[in-house]
Amino acid sequence: MKWKGDTLKRNYLNQQYFLEVDLEDLAGFDENLSETLTKQPTEHLQIFEEAAREVADEITAPRPENEIHVEDIQVLLRSNSN
Prior knowledge:
Belongs to the MCM family. This protein is α+β, with helices and mostly antiparallel strands.
């Protein structure tokens, strides 16, 4: 799976608080995780979004004092399959 940290950081600094996750890339990394997320996205997206927010906090630090709050990150699932 491709490291998405650079994309997440670029999006965050441009005030675009989202991260696209390609399900085929995820399957290449962990097929069971990709399958679980595909079958039950609402039950698992919150965990992905919490993790993305934590990573955004780490990779955008240090931030100016007036930007202490870390924005929520929306995880968007993308798939080329029908």
